[in-house]
Amino acid sequence: MTIPSTSAAKPAVAIIGGGVVGLSIGWRLAQAGCAVDIYEKGTAGAGASRAAAGMLAAGVEAEPGEQSLLPLCRESQRRWPGFAAELEAASGMRVGLRQEGTLAVALTRDDVEHLRSTYEFQRGLGLELHWLHGAAVKEREPFLNPRTSAGVFSPADGQVDNRQVCAALILAFAKAGGRLHQRTGVQAVDIAAGRVRGVVVDGDLRPADAVVLAAGAWSRQIAGLPAGAMPPVRPVKGQMLSVRMDPANPLLRHVVWPPKCYLVPRLNGTLIVGATTEEKGWDESLTAGGVLALLEAAWRALPGIEELPIAEMWTGFRPGSRDDAPVLGPAPGVDGLVLATGHHRNGILLTPVTADSIAELVLTGRTADVIAGFGMGRFGGGG
Ligand code: FAD
Ligand code: GLY
């Protein structure tokens, strides 16, 4: 990919979408001296990046059929501590990185068999995981149901406070000289003679040497994209809720995955209960069935939850791609257009590796080895 710059040294870049993906790429490029404009149709960080649980779960979330995604997830997980430290220093904010490991737990005999088969599959991928008997699980998390009969401990899996990450990225991006335009939707990408010219906002061309499409689940809604550059991304709805624990005496200290839900304790006492996975298009309703299923699964694993006040309930749209892996790389047939979307269930985890690799691509034209298998080429002719 070639990206001519209009300024003396670095390309001017327009980024479509102010979620964790667009903000982190923008921060990296602004740090490198580029003139960067991020266009966000609503409020930055209020899309999937706000809805997420913030788990950095390369291990326990590894699923059959997603083996090729694992090296990317593990590499990004490895980069998180350095990324968080740098972001905290640049923004002056804490981002709540916690690395005490994650527990997947089983209650019934059926759950134990299922957990064992997942454990064997994940261990076969080379992941460090430890099988625990019920007593050892309850030693780590004493408020879990006394019937908890087994668990798997994943030391490498942790969490970050995704809402704090977005807020910190907004600050760090501005401090690095970037310009964030909120409530400013991009209508179209302007392309002439196979090269991007910029983006169209309010009917006007805003020129740029490079354009990064980071519009999450909305990435197909931008006009002007040729068919071969249209990422195969769709909204995958998730319902979530949170309850308030006593931060001085929390019911949980690790991220815990019981059957049919996950539980994510924050340092401030918030306990997140997630999440449904639904193919319902752009339906953003909270449903009785969705909330009931989450609360029931959480209550079975952690009976003490029934005393806790509900803090919040919400929905979000994961940007799901055809193979559940992100779409990262140059857009075929359009010089200067870069795709960074489709992060599905792992966008928070994949933030550091996405930001570094896409910034490198824009600055040098080189596709880093770690993202080489995640371009549009794998879909064989567009989405
Ligand atoms: P978004 O945050 O959705 O940002 C895209 C932005 O683009 C939006 O702000 C939108 O307004 C803007 N936009 C759209 N169209 C335009 C336009 N035309 N012009 C300008 N702006 C536009 N990931 C993890 O790693 N760990 C988790 O624990 C986790 N849990 C999750 C739980 C739920 C319920 C959900 C929904 C997701 C979860 N994810 C998790 C996934 C993660 O949230 C996403 O993969 C990630 O946030 C995607 O980031 P993004 O910046 O691409 O998308
Ligand atoms: N990664 C958790 C979720 O997408 O619900």
Annotated CATH topology of the largest domain: FAD/NAD(P)-binding domain
Q: What's the total helix number? A: 8
Count of separate structural domains = 2
CATH architecture of the largest domain: 3-Layer(bba) Sandwich
For the residues shown, what is the average pLDDT?
96
Order of helices and strands: EHEHEHEHEHEEHEEEEEEEEEHEEEH
CATH H-level superfamily of the largest domain: FAD/NAD(P)-binding domain
Index terms:
single chain; binds glycine; 4-stranded mixed β-sheet; 383 residues; FAD/NAD(P)-binding domain; D-Amino Acid Oxidase, Chain A, domain 2; 27% helix; binds flavin-adenine dinucleotide; alpha/beta; 2 domains; 8 helices; elongated; 6-stranded mixed β-sheet
Can you describe this structure?
By secondary structure, this protein is an alpha/beta fold. The protein has 2 domains: 12-57 and 163-232 and 323-379, FAD/NAD(P)-binding domain; 99-156 and 234-320, 2-Layer Sandwich (D-Amino Acid Oxidase, Chain A, domain 2), CATH 3.30.9. 27% of the residues lie in helices and 25% in strands. The chain is built from 8 helices and 19 strands. The protein has helices at residues 20-31, 48-51, 70-91, 109-124, 134-140, 162-175, 288-301, 351-364, and strands at 12-16, 35-39, 55-56, 102-106, 130-133, 150-154, 158-159, 179-181, 188-192, 195-201, 204-207, 210-213, 233-244, 255-257, 262-265, 270-274, 310-321, 327-330, 337-341. A 6-stranded mixed β-sheet has the order 8-2-1-12-19-18. A hairpin with a 2-residue loop joins β9 (188-192) and β10. α1 crosses α8 (351-364), α3 crosses α6 and α3 (70-91) crosses α8. The mean pLDDT is 96. The protein binds flavin-adenine dinucleotide (FAD) and glycine.
